[in-house]
Amino acid sequence: MSLSDPIGDMIARVKNAQARNHKKVELPSSKFKVKIAEILKSEGFIKDFKVNSVENKSTLSLDLKYHSGNPVISSFERVSKPGRRIFSSADSLPKINNGLGIAIVSTPKGVMTDIDARKQKIGGEIICKVF
Fold first, then answer.
1. Terminus of the chain with fewer CB atoms < 10 Å: N or C?
2. Which of 41, 64, 37, 72 is nearest to 51 (CA)?
3. Any residues with CB less than 8 A from the CB of 100 and at least 6 apart, and which?
4. Assign residue 110 a region: left if phi > 0, alpha if psi is -120 to 50, beta otherwise?
5. How many C-beta atoms surround the C-beta of residue 65 within 10 A?
6. Which tens digit of pLDDT belongs to each residue from 54-107?
């Protein structure tokens, strides 16, 4: 089965799992999704993640994080979609929720947060917003 938007699928699975208060969510793995999971972990939005490989299929398992019963990720939105790519220069990268959230940006130097992209003065494709 092929997906037209695997990152959108990842976001939908995380949102659905949090709506049901699941501790873990599993999804098909890719290098790009692992990079997003690394950013979510380093920014404190998820507890941990693991990549499991079974019979030539790798799955990404995310341990979701909750604070006093509520999910830490209050909003997780896709910005750049396959039908409409959104690019931004380093100067015009958006501040998410007045600096309380992050935007995940795909740059020529890899996938990083909007804060890191501003520091390195590089722009790129805005993948999603998290806060």
1. N
2. 37
3. 131
4. left
5. 17
6. 999 999 999 999 999 999 999 999 999 999 999 999 999 999 999 899 999 999
